[in-house]
Prior knowledge:
With 285 residues, this protein is mainly alpha-helical. It has helices at 3-30, 38-44, 51-67, 72-82, 88-108, 110-128, 140-158, 160-171, 179-187, 190-214, 219-248, 254-284. The protein is globular and about 45 Å long.
Amino acid sequence: MNKLELDHLEFYxxxxxxxxxxILLGIFVFDYQGTETTSKIIKDNPIINNSTTxxxxxxxxxxxxxxxxxxxxxxxxxxxxxxxxxxxxxxxLSYILIxxxxxxxxxxxxxxxxxxxxxxxxxxxxxxDSLNKIKKSNFKLLYYFSRGSIxxxxxxxxxxxxxxxxxxxxxxxxxxxxxxxxxxxxFFTPFFAFTIYFCFLHSVRHIVSLSSELxxxxxxxxxxxxxxxxxxxxxxxxxxxxxxxxxxxxFNQINEAIFKxxxxxxxxxxxxxxxxxxxxxxxxx
Length: 285
């Protein structure tokens, strides 16, 4: 699959994602009767504002969401070759230690770690989900960050109280590319909207890109290869998320436990994932 074919596939994926958002709006929002304002729809709607929905979102993120990073072990082996290292344990140990360090740092400095995570995540989302990649530009960093920051600032703009409540839970302190980003955050709760974006736009797009790399001639075969390679780490990650949720339920309400596992867990995986992507890109150049 050449670059033009991949761009077309990503474009059509964006179209289908928009369709998905519109369908969800019709099912969860516009079809709900008995409310007069958007805020009241969100607050009173029994479908999109309850623990069951958050639990479904938890499983979607823990499976589909994190699966796009499940080939990091193969990328790690590729990175080791650049440094003339043969022992894969070096990569696994480094990756796990970075993840554990982020969890520990979040425990010690929750607000600072959250702030850094949001900045890095904004840049990562803006870069990975941009249809038009910038190769050379003095404003590349600002460009990607401004696009990805929509994911961060939209919930604060449209659901400030709910978003601040989530930030309180996970930080223990108070501290476009697409118009549908704004639309879904306006109508959906922040966590529900993030799940839609992270699983069905960000992760799916990354999976498509990886599948095209695994088999440049046939995207379907590449997808099958990806699923077989990604299954072990995806399953391990999902199990770890479930175990963490189980133990946190002894000390937190279910929604609080879900938010902590998802966002702190994603942060612990995001830092080594982005570092790996950066080192690979740097060495390949």
